[in-house]
Amino acid sequence: MDNPPVAEKSGGSSEQNVVASDPPEAEAQGGIEEREIAEESPSISDPALPQVSQDVDGFLSNLGLHDDKFEPPEVPDSIEVFCKLVETMIGNYDSGDISARFGQVPEEDTTFLESVVRVSKLMNALRGFPVGSPAGEMYGRSGSVLQRAMLFVEDEFRTLLEDSRSHIPESKSLKTKHPSFNSKEDHDRCVLPESEPTGDEDYPAYPPEVVAGMKKVATAMISAGYETECCQVFSISRRNAFKEAVNKQGIDSFSNDDLQKMQWDTLEGEIAAWIKVVKKCSQVLFPGERRLAESVFEDHPAIISSQFGNLARAAVIHFLNFAEAVAMTKRSAEKLFKFLDMYETLRDLIPAISSPNSDDRCHELKSETMTAGSRLGEAAVCIFCDLENSIKSDVSKTPVPNGAVHPLTSYTMNYLNYACEYKDTMEEVFRQHQRIERNDEAGSDAENDRSRQNNARPPPAKLSPFATQLTTVMDLLDASMDTKSKLYKDMSLRYIFLMNNGRYILQKMKGSSEIHKVMGDTWCRKRSSDLRQYHQNYKRETWSKVLQCLKDEGLQVNGKVIKPVLKERFKTFNALFDEIHKTQSTWVVKDEQLRSELRVSISAVMIPAYRSFLARFSQYLDPGRQTEKYIKYQPEDIETTIDDLFDGNPMSMARKRT
Asked: How many Å apart are CA 589 and CA 497, to the nearest integer?
């Protein structure tokens, strides 16, 4: 609302139609007398003020019943006394006496502000009476007093806002859930930091008594018709304070082109800084600004919404420009988790900028924030779905040395582990993306095409879009490992490779309850069954020939042991066992439990069979050189040698010989 004019001029020519104009010059000259009164007054509130105020209220009540503007009423002397008392109070506030300053005695401040509002009511009630009449002159007089009072009150409001604000402490880091995912690093050793408290939840750090004073001043200014000035002072002061708090976080401004050309390492750092600032605004700055506006303008919800909305919009639009520019950068796997962090940050920003009582500006801002978040979510979905293409395109014809875990397996499972730590967010963005796709593809054949592509393996019923995609990735990885196992010419090594990768996948699933939930117990049981089958196949391929050497068939004719055949059996056994040890000691089984299970199961069949064979037939060899030549291993040697297998160490044999 504009300032009530101190004076009004009519365009009419008739003297009766002339209303109160500028206060006479005598009023300005009377300022000296008023200052003298102020200097003589010992306190802000004159003892006569309550009675005089009561007289003014009575006059205003009677004036409300006076309809004829051309028959002005008599103005009692108490009205002029009241105006002088108000001027005296202003003079005392401006006297320089610290004890008399505004804010030192809240009760007197309240009395003063009530008096200012009363002056405003008096001026409005006297508006329109003819110039020269006592009522017309008092209109100009009260307008002059009100203007002087409002200049003082506005300055005091500005002082309360700017000088009473406590120092805003530096905030601690608000860390994101993950560092960037980099396929070249060992993800098994990634340590995830957690968010720390900011320590400045009391922002904007005004003492309660100061906020109470602001509310009194704002209420008086609005009641007196100075809403525009009040809001302008508040808006400028809080905008500057908010900007100062944001700048302390160290965020920079970049153009869209700058962000598109930026290297990922640099952009990642800028994203981290952006997340830190937006979280600070969501958790501390915006709630603090809203609380302050609600406290100062408690009885004026429209002003609260306007003040907060204008302040928030400038900051949020800057945040959204950055987010949308990042969403447009070239997509790559390592960006997924930063995109999800940004999506969550914008999602958490929405409650901080909107409320049930928000005006259209805040609702529009909420909509824009949701749109920017949706673009980040869409980018995240596309990046995650591209994992499917990455698995399909990995067509290397070179097998991993020694049957170890394939890099694609470790990369994919670590990637899925990290993605599932964002499971709720991933579910959310996939659902949003699915809705968008359905809208875009309405009436097209795209849905039918995708359905035909999925006919090879229909997704399990009632799986969410994210769970369906996760299942697809797991099945593709399973199929890829089966294909890659065929690169090994040695069937035994093929099964070691399948066991290594199958166990790695299973262990990762056990470590991630989210993946386990999605894939289900049936899938896990099937995987465990496959591992047992690979184990049996490995033993059959590797040890069946060795065990064949330890059988009785062909060693006896008519109940007599044929020594040449027995010697050949021992020679064949030694050669096969040596070759297995030489070869399979270089093979790698990283999982300790799997390695132990393999060794135990081999020993369980080999040692009893060898011990029995040795006990039954060693006696048929001549003691001495023959025994040493053909009986190369004792049962305990068999066990020791088996314990060398799968170490990935070609020196195992050399160590055994020394």
From this structure: 9
